[in-house]
Amino acid sequence: MVRGTRPAQSAAEVTIGRDILDTAPRTNATDVLRVVPGLVASQHSGEGKAQQLFLRGFDALHGQDVELNVGGLPVNEVSHIHALGYADTNFIIPELVQSLEVTEGSYRAFQGDFAVAGTVRMDLGAREKGVEFAGTLGQFNTRRLVVTVRPGEDPGTFAAAEIAESNGFGPQRGYGRAALLAQANVDLGQGVSAKVLGGSYVTRFDSPGVVREDDLEAGRRTFYSGSFPRQGGTVSRHQLLIGVDLPREGTARTRLEAFGILSDLRLRNNFTGYRVDDRGDGLEQTNDSTTLGLRAEHRRQATLFGRPLALELGLGGRRDGIHQTQRRYRETDGTFFADEVDADLTQTDVWGYAEVRLPLGRWAFRLGGRADALGVEVFDALAFRDPRYYDGQGYSRSAFGVHWGAKAGVEYALTDTWALFASYGDGFRSPQARSLSEGEQAPFVNVHGAELGTRREGERLSFQASVFGSQVADDFFFDHTVGTTVFTGETLRTGISAALQARPFEGLTAALSATVANATVTKTGAKLPYFAPLVARADLGWEKPLPAIDAILSLGTGLTLIGPRPLPYDEYSHTVFLADAQAALRRGALALRLDVKNLLNARWRDGEFVYSSRFDATAWPSLIPARHFTAGAPRVASLTLEVHL
Q1: Sign of the alpha-carbon torsion through 410, 413, 416, 419
Q2: In terms of Cα–Cα distance, which of 311, 283, 212, 296 is closest to 608?
Q3: Quick check: 364 pLDDT over 90?
Q4: Is the predicted pLDDT of residue 295 greater than 90, yes or no?
Q5: The pLDDT value given to residue 191
Q6: Quick one: which H or E segment has residue 217?
Q7: Strand pairing partners for 590?
Q8: Domains of the chain by range and CATH?
Q9: Which residues belong to any copy of the TonB-dependent receptor plug domain (predicted)?
Q10: Mean pLDDT of 534-544
């Protein structure tokens, strides 16, 4: 079975292979995501909550502007109670990530809902044939066991399980999780092949909340303090994908896929203390969803006026059924005192796209389009609730809308390996269903993006650089710490990015990237809060055989630099520099690996926010904004023993 990556047709498309992923410690999904050029993945609310993502000048919150896909399964959840596009990747077992296909921007027709800043697709596969056991012991009572079975030569056929738990590096940071992923590629004969991917995941985690900066300076809190003990949550996810590749007819290839996902979340947090209510501002949110979907992709070579062209077509549909609630609870005993959301949603997206690429000598032209039709039904059980009456409570409503998007690109080949690119694309983000009124035309957030860049392909050295810009017609940002949506009108993101992969000689692997971005409100020129203006990443790995002891020594490091991010009220976050390192020695069936994260033991802030709060219930209420932060992990070391059979 021969597999290939999707050919790059814009400057900022990049494939990150296993050799790069193996250069630095990767023990969870956050570690995997950080290797994506320009992407910041923040895990500020515990090990079980979806990461907050920043890419190309967008604060994507928990996924609203980054489309994520794992092995063909969509990760983003529509109309989620906590955040639009909520993308929880914690079910991923890092050892199974074979490669990442990254398409930054929104320039390709296959990119769908939430592909505003870009799309990240993860391909899964087991590293070695046979059975692998990996047991990890680390600081803070961290324990992890991964078992992987690959029965044959195909890395895409495997089964793996992970169990992990830890007390965490400070108060209210403990977690426990278990994950199972299994995939099979099957040749059915007569040119038909099938792929089946399934998995289950469950976690229970604590969340530390935030620390006020003035409480830290006054000595009332330590850097790693927790705020309220009831924060955290539980998550489970069960998923199945079945795909069939039909027999080839000449150059034509057709793939059909069906998938189903069951997921649920119960999340408790309190970021403001007693600012809103003397009983406490704690919120418990639940989101139970069932996702069913179908996809069809068809690719073929054709001719137009005697010229060869490549054609790609896609059709699909996805239905999400969601029940979600939001309640306020007392900090004293955890009992509920107010119901704010109790809703049932049905959201259906039907899409189709087409893209054609026409080469003309050194030139190549790409033209495509995509249409998404969205239908929404909402039953709001608490609408029009009035305690004076016993009738008239609850309301049903429905809405429908269509998003039309154009895609285009021009490519000029300077040499066989070096080309220039110009790309344009319309991206979109679906709305929160509960915000729609009866009969409303479902409003999509429309994004118009353009990019100029260059790329060089090669086995020893590949490089890409681009200048990009994205205009959002009617934008908003959501501050999830205080639950406030701020509509900003038209916004503009601009920037430059570059990425390099080098394998100059046997045993040495390097991946370097840097992105500089700016995000402003068009009308006022004011900077949008929370986006990351500077993100740089370096992953370096070296492998050397040691014939004297018949072993292989591996050394690697991952370096991350995040520049000061603008915050509300003209504040800026602190600069973050992190260095991770690993050293491994393998002899035959045994391997021993030492992972050290935050090697320099930097005292860094994983999340920084500015808003008003009151954490002392006896203090006088105030709406004066204050700085808050969540502490990043200190230096954490772990030792892993691997047995390969």
Answers
A1: negative
A2: 212
A3: yes
A4: yes
A5: 87
A6: helix 213-217
A7: 587, 643
A8: 13-644 (2.40.170.20)
A9: 14-119
A10: 95
Alpha-carbon torsion (426, 430, 435, 440), positive or negative: positive
CA 268 to chain centre: 21
CB atoms inside a 10 Å sphere around CB 340: 12
User: Would you give the DSSP letter of residue 434?
Assistant: G
Residue 563 in contact with residue 37, Cβ under 8 Å? no
For residue 306, is pLDDT > 90? Answer: no
Question: For residue 358, is pLDDT > 70?
Answer: yes
Tell me the sheet residues that pair with 353.
Answer: 314, 370
Q: Which two tokens stand for residue 311?
A: 């054609």
Q: Is 483 left (phi over 0), alpha (psi -120 to 50) or beta?
A: left
Instruction: Answer whether residue 292 shows pLDDT above 60.
Output: yes
Give dist(CA 486, CA 575) in Å, integer: 26
Q: Pull the structure tokens for residue 522.
A: 């068009």
67 pLDDT higher than 90: yes
**Cα–Cα distance for residue pair 349/76, rounded to 1 Å:** 13
> Where is average pLDDT lowest: 353-367, 385-399, 436-450, 630-644?
385-399
Task: Provide the pLDDT confidence category of residue 5 given band limits of 50, 70 and 90.
Answer: low
Q: What is the pTM of this model?
A: 0.92
Give tens-digit pLDDT for 130-148: 999 999 999 999 999 999 9
Q: Is the pLDDT of residue 375 over 90?
A: yes
Q: Which residues pair with 496 in a beta bridge?
A: 467, 516
> Strand 590-597 vs strand 73-74: parallel, antiparallel, or unpaired?
unpaired
Round to whole Å and give the CA distance between 583 and 590.
14
Burial 345-367 (b: 16+ CB within 10 A, else e): bbbbbbbbbbbbbbeeeeebebb
Q: 45 near 227, Cβ under 8 Å?
A: no
Q: Is the distance from CB of 535 to CB of 521 less than 8 angstroms?
A: no
- CA distance linking residue 448 with residue 428, whole number of Å: 9
> Sorting pLDDT into bands at 50, 70 and 90, what band is 620?
confident
Q: How far apart are CA 159 and CA 157, in angstroms?
A: 7
Separation CA 336–CA 283 (nearest Å)? 9
Letter for the amino acid at 248?
R
Minimal CA–CA distance to 350: which of 299, 291, 294, 405?
294
Instruction: Judge whether residue 2 has pLDDT over 80.
Output: no
Question: Cα 590–596–602 angle (5° rounding)?
Answer: 180
Residue 309, pLDDT above cutoff 60: yes
Strand runs labelled E in 105-172 = 118-124, 130-138, 142-150, 158-166
3-state secondary structure of 225: coil
Report whether pLDDT(318) > 90: yes
In whole angstroms, what is the distance from residue 613 CA to residue 590 CA? Answer: 53
**Rounded CA separation 186/192 (Å):** 9
pLDDT at residue 443 is higher than 80: no
* Size of the chain in residues: 645
Torsion-angle region of residue 491: left (phi > 0), alpha (psi -120 to 50) or beta? beta
